[in-house]
User: Fold this.
Amino acid sequence: MRYLMKKCFIVVFMVISPLLPGLAQERPDQSITRPPSTALWMGFYGKFRLSEKFFWDAQFHYRRVNDANTKYIGRMGQIYNRHALNYLVNKNFSMSLGPVLRLNFSPEPENPEFEKVVLEPRIWHEYLFAMPFPRFMVYHRLRIEHRWSRSNRVGSDWIFRNRYRYKFYMYIPINNTQLTPGTFYFTPDIEVILQSGKPIIDSPLEDLRLNPSIGYIANPRTKYTIGMMYTTGQNLDAGYNFSSRWVLRMSVYLSLDFRKMEAKIPQIRFDD
Amino acid sequence: MIFRTKILGVCASHTLFPFIFLFLAVSILTQAQEIREFNDSYTLENDLEGEAIYNYYLSGSDTIKQGGFFFQHSETDLVDERQTIISIILSGQYTKNVKNGAWSYGYKEFRPEGQPVTTDSEIIYNATGKDYTARTFFKNSKVHGNYEIQERTIANSVTTDTLFFLKAFYEEGVMLEVIEGKKDNVRVSGRFNSQGMPDGKWEILHRTDSGDLLDVREYEDGILSSHHFVHNNEKYQINYVGMDSDPETSNQNWEEVVAGPEYFRLLSYASVGLNKDENKPENLGDPMQLVQIGNSLLEKVFFNVDVHGGRKIWELSDGGYEMQPVLVKLRKYPLSEEERIVYSEALKLLEATQNDIDTYLDDPYVKIGLHAYQDIHFYYEVMKIFQEKVETLAPLVNLLSDQATQYLNREAIIKETLPYINYPEEVQFEFDNTVITDTFPFPQGISQNNVTMTEINAHLGEIFKIVTDISETSANILEDYKSQSELPKMEAELLSKKDSIVNLFMNKTPREEYNTWHEAISSSVQEFAEQEFKNYAALPLTEKVTKIDEISSCFDSLFALYTELEDLPRKLDRINEVYTRTTWNPFTFTYMDERVKENVYEAFENEVFPFVWDELSGSISCENIGDKTKSLEVLYRKMIELRDEDTKQIERQLRRSNTLEEILAALNLDLH
Assistant:
């Protein structure tokens, strides 16, 4: 697995290297990969239909990270509040635009040099392409985030960065041929997160996430997923430093239709 | 120059001018009346085609026949299944389109017989068949002179029998003097007075195996005054009733009438036979029959001498002819208007009654039913009695409605002709090997004394009413029996239905509508239909009648089941569809189906429908097939209704239901 990750990283790095003119001058001969940390991400993903074309995208994430004593759930990591207005262009493409407010909890909760919670607002917009196949679905997600953040260290400055995220994922039914209620499905998921901005000197690759998961569709409104995600990426301060994580992710996806009853009559379907 | 001047001088003279004019006129007329000969195809009376040769001249645009005329028609036809040559030859003389001189008409129906004989240029056969020849003379289109008719049978060109022969004489179109005639074994001879009326003794000689019998009819200037038979020198008087034979009785009411069919009908009405106190001639059968033979011969002689094969022979060619029929004298008894009405009503009643009786007695259901129903047999016997009585009355009623009756004394003829109508007190018949005697309220009989036609009409009316009542009563009784009689036809239909059902459910003739539901019960339905038919076939006849409609209806229910099952896949799909909600999932970008009112649908899918289907397929019977088929429809409608209703309460009940009965109760389903 690690070998594979390295290969991927090398490929991605070669692609983006021309964009990195001022690579750190005092850098070691080889990259440093830190021991992986662990985390637990619990996410609630909501998409509430407001009209024929518009959805309210409402996400809430509760993330814990390991501490010295406890893996995965040792301390609070972040709380996410991500919202957007989602526009369904057609059955294969949607766009979203909205705000995010992330609460970053102190990495050293007992250390007074760190603030307990630091806010991180973002603006994000997303372009999601869906490609239907007879037995599975393929998705390409482009998400761009404009984020204002600062370290939990007391007195740290705000920095502004842009994130460029591309995610490829699939829904492959396991016990069915279609993604219908009662179906378990497998999701191969890989996402590359690049970043730019003045503070970004030698760490354009913020994260590479491999997030295979198993999902279950309880009903047309609710599905669940669980998966173990491995991520690796450059540290903002030193690009040669690569951090990595194992993240246990558990998510609930809820979609409700807030339209009036008469507007819920399904469209005539010519496919699936 | 001198010669020229002389000629002009003569022509110019007044003496010569009329001669020159006459010469020119005669020359023109001679040119106009130039006799020409026609020798070509010719059609007589627009339908008899043949060849004709005749002379004629043209007068303006008209063809005027002048001189000889000859026409021959010839054809080959099958007579008695043998090829026969039929020829008609008409020949005579015309003067300016008017028949004048000798004329003859010949009809030959010959077939070749024996070996042919050849001459220089012909093949000749002997002929076998019959021929008819009529010869006479015309004077200015009136028959004038001898008139001869001969009809023979010929075998091998030799006359074997003379079927009819007549030798008469006409003057200016009127038959006069003496005639001689023969038809088969009957000879006739007589004479006419100067007006062409039979006069004096007319003798008709019947030659029979039992000896000769002479039918002698005495005419006095057209009036039949006496009629008797002579046999073995014995005289037997023929009596006439209602027809006056005495010219002295009244000079006022005698009329000259044509001796045609009406006259001879009158003779047969009035001639009542021999005197009652005379013994009839031995071995001569019914003398009245001989009278009729004589009448028939006289009718031919008096009225039909110019007719052969339904054609008036002298009318076949142009020019017409005049030939006065023989006249006789009859005393007239004028008919009053009241009499005409009464006689007409009597005839209508008679015909209607006869028709009803004949219809009844000829009705095959009656004929068969009289062996099954005592009442029908009884009525049948009653009808036969009425038939006999009505037939007895018929000659009188027919006679009185004949035009000829105006020359009859009706009072006398009614009294003479009216039979005594008497009805039995009891009707006896045999039914089921038992002699049964029963009474029937017959109308009162008619005695011959002083009965009027009005009373006869009333009697006929009574009979008609009774006959109508019997017909109606019998029809009601026979209703069931008719059903039995129609049984074979109904059974054929039943068999056809059974075969169709088996064919449908076994899909022997593949149909698009055939589906798995049909297939699932095909064996059961086949077995059931076959068994039902077998059970029916084994029933006694009387039970079959009452059962066949039921079985037929049962089979119709199977057709209805087939139709219902044709639609079952659609209905199941429809239920599935309406109990499915389709939702767009924005995470997967797919539509997702979701069962709605899941408890209701599951109750339907897992419990109720399997129950209905098992009930239907597991125990097919005539008693329940209709209801079971209906249950499918009832269940479908219930499911569609429930989709739109608030079913929270029902679903709660369903969740608590453990048995089918509880489920059916929760769904409020009555499936019989």
User: Anything to note?
Assistant: The helical segments of chain A are 2-16.
